[in-house]
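Checklist before submission:
- one chain only
- standard amino acids only
- sequence pasted in full

Submission:
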Amino acid sequence: MKSKILYLLLVSILILASCGQKNETETSNKNSNELEGEITFWHSFTQGPRKEYIEKKAEVFMKKHPKVKIKIETFAWPEFHTKWTTGVQAGQVPDISTAMPNDVSLMIDANVLSDVDGVINDIGKDKFYSGPLKEGEKNGKHYSIPLYSHAQVMWYRKDLLKKVNEEVPKTWDDFERVTDKISKEGTFGISVPMGTGDMMATRFLNFYVRSHGEKLIKNGKADLTNKRAIDGINYWVNRYHSSSPKGSINFKVLDQATLFYQGKTAFDFNSGFQISGVKANSPDLLKKISAAPIPTQKSSEKSEGIETTNVPLVQWKHSKHKDISRAFIKELYKEDDYVDFLLSTPGGMLPVMKGVSDNPKYKSNETIKAFKPEIDMIERQISHGTAIGMEDGPNVEASILTTQNIIEEMFQEIVTTDISTEDAAKKAEDKLNRQFQIMSR
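Returned file contents:
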């Protein structure tokens, strides 16, 4: 399997490169109030209404400021990590971009971002929920501004549960029994994704481990060999063999989600984006889906949020037109525009700003109304969950855990060879900790 050592060398290059950067250029036209220049905006809204919304906003902004050009480039979320790390090395990064929280930690560590405190204060810091803001904070400065939130929950087919005379699973034992019964009826109970180039196997393992009171990172070190982690690895290997399509060994997030969209799996773990995915692919199934919290160890336990994602915007340090970048970012947070943005994928993108959920336009959306119980439940999970590995706050170790595919490779090795779970877990744990140690030097 492909070595990840290049990644560690690359981060060192990023840090060295950032030290040689010139001081930030505040504006390109200090003597004029008129915005002028070209900026590049990278985002990962690769298709559908979100992509169209951003394009429309850029067009309106450019008409308002005729001397401004906004160049938009899109990259799928799994591609973004490689794109920005190689981009810094080549000196080809944007002015502003979307990002994942775990990437933000690396970006801050590599000193390639400008703080966005000015933008946050202009919008109104007190308008944001505190949790999403903290994920981009270091030494009292904010290096990312949250755009929307979502949380991972368990989506399921109501009709298939009824067919096998089962209730919604509350525990992992329930989940195993139900997915086995449904699989015997001809529909895959659950797809277990292990593809590299994404973090889906890490996500599934984290669900199990966190719901049993453990963490994948403890005291700055990877912990894949505690009893709960070993149990979790065995659990998902068992689900792969018993109720999953065998091709899921190479699945990434879109492959995984598409099976549920098309009605080929009974369960999936995802956010409210499942609603729009099912609507686009199999609208006849829309009334047959619902969501519940992620299973727990015991039915008596209260299920709280495990994984929350607060997707932010960042401003890159090299930008020559920070005045334009900041002005465009602020446009996205005007109340009516922000509501329109969230409603481009209703239920998938939930507000990071207070009071938006009570906005009449937001509340009256047909999807928001139809899935109100599910969306309310997801919002409750958001307040308790964190990004994977960030239970104790933002850290570079969590970035390595979710970007280097070491856990994905571990699962693939267990499935395709005769290595024991314990040996594979120890091998992966040691590999992660070597990378953690190098990064801490």
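Reviewer check: Residues 1-31 have pLDDT under 50 and may be disordered.
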